């Protein structure tokens, strides 16, 4: 990894779970993010993958300061930004921008494209002098592959892919260094997903951006990510380079997710068994003791209910070296998932 631009350590976001309307009594908490650690390198793309409800969007919102963490730290270029407020927070926010999942609902239908893309200049007037904003917006439209002549059109006059380009242009308006893209292509037709991914890829090189790219499917992030983190129930359970995660996954959850991804190469497909996970994802209000994946894990043993596995390179794999030696939160992490099932 290159020099880190973002460092996340011990990050938690628990939402209070209340009962009653008048006297809101706290009866528990939704552990949306429950101990997340990772770093994002400068110019790097880190993919974050996991099933619905595992806390991906909450991580995204914490990074762009739309939410405050319950506990933990986010550092931007070494500076702790978690407790910033007022002007200092605003200054940092400029550098970390978000692209949202659904270009159909995230763009105000009553605003013109020009106003949408230029909106960040209203919030950060210091970023561009008033007289220069239209010109900048036109340039941004051009950069994301839209016709600058369409600056006065409304979102409904564009296709889904074009609307996501509008969202990306808005994300770029303040010339941020980090883009947090929360499932930026999930709502789009498969045929345009690749175009938007390619656009993000090109913009990254042109503007030296660092990306946190969120998806619920390992296949989408594969082409764009340098590293991938797999989330389960509020935590990252495995993280590593592209080759490590796709070639030598060691956590049973990642192995299960990958076994469901279609493989175009028949040789690679051979010998790979499809792992069907049984049971539902537990509720984030009631996280299992020990390893949170144990209620669905085919490898689970007694130790898994007692001890929380930490996200680190597992001891037996450390000496092996190679692609298997990367961080995995499993007491029995291994690469031979096909042979050790009961
Ligand atoms: N404001 C909130 N108040 C209470 N619970 C919340 C709040 N926001 C999110 N949650 C809960 O936190 C958990 C994580 O939600 P989050 O939106 O981060 O998941 P996600 O991984 O982005 O899911 P998806 O793939 O569906 O977008 C879910 O159980 C969700 O219901
Ligand atoms: S720690 Fe145990 S339950 Fe958790 S993933 Fe590893 S084997 Fe499965
Ligand atoms: Mg989400």
UniProtKB/TrEMBL annotation:
Belongs to the ABC transporter superfamily. This is Peptide ABC transporter ATP-binding protein. Keywords: ATP-binding, Nucleotide-binding, Transport. InterPro entries: AAA+_ATPase, ABC_transp_ATP-bind, ABC_transporter-like_ATP-bd, ABC_transporter-like_CS, Oligopep_ABC_C, P-loop_NTPase. The keyword Membrane does not apply. NCBIfam families: oligo_HPY, PRK11308.1. Pfam families: ABC_tran (PF00005), oligo_HPY (PF08352). It comes from Streptomyces griseoruber. GO terms for biological process: peptide transport; transmembrane transport. PANTHER family: D,D-DIPEPTIDE TRANSPORT ATP-BINDING PROTEIN DDPF-RELATED, TRANSPORT ATP-BINDING PROTEIN. It comes from the Bacteria.
């Amino acid at each position: 990894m290159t020099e880190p631009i973002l460092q996340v350590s011990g990050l938690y976001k628990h939402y209070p779970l209340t009962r009653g309307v008048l006297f809101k009594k706290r009866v528990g908490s939704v552990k949306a993010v429950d101990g997340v650690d990772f770093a994002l390198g400068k110019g790097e793309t880190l993919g974050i993958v996991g099933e619905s409800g595992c806390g991906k969007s909450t991580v995204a919102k914490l990074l762009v300061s739309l939410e405050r963490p319950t506990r933990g730290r986010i550092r931007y270029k070494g500076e702790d930004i978690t407790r910033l407020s007022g002007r200092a927070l605003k200054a940092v926010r400029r550098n970390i921008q978000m692209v949202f999942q659904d270009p159909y609902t995230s763009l105000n239908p009553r605003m013109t494209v020009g106003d949408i893309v230029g909106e960040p200049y209203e919030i950060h007037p210091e970023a561009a002098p008033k007289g220069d904003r239209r010109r900048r917006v036109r340039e941004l439209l051009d950069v994301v592959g839209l016709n600058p002549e369409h600056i006065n059109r409304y979102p409904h006059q564009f296709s889904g892919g074009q609307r996501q380009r509008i969202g990306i242009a808005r994300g770029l308006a303040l010339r941020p260094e980090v883009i947090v893209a929360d499932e930026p292509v999930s709502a789009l037709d498969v045929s345009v997903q690749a175009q938007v991914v390619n656009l993000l890829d090109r913009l990254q090189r042109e503007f030296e951006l660092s990306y946190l790219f969120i998806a619920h499917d390992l296949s989408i992030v594969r082409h764009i990510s340098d590293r991938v983190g797999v989330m389960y129930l509020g935590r990252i359970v495995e993280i590593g380079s592209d080759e490590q995660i796709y070639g030598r996954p060691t956590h049973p959850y990642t192995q299960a997710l990958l076994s469901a991804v279609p493989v175009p190469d028949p040789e690679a497909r051979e010998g790979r068994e499809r792992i069907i996970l049984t049971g539902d994802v537990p509720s984030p209000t009631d996280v299992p003791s020990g390893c949170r994946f144990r209620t669905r894990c085919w490898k689970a043993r007694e130790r898994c209910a007692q001890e929380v596995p930490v996200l680190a390179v597992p001891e037996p794999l450390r000496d092996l070296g190679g692609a298997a030696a990367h961080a995995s939160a499993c007491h029995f992490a291994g690469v031979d998932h096909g042979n050790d099932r009961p």
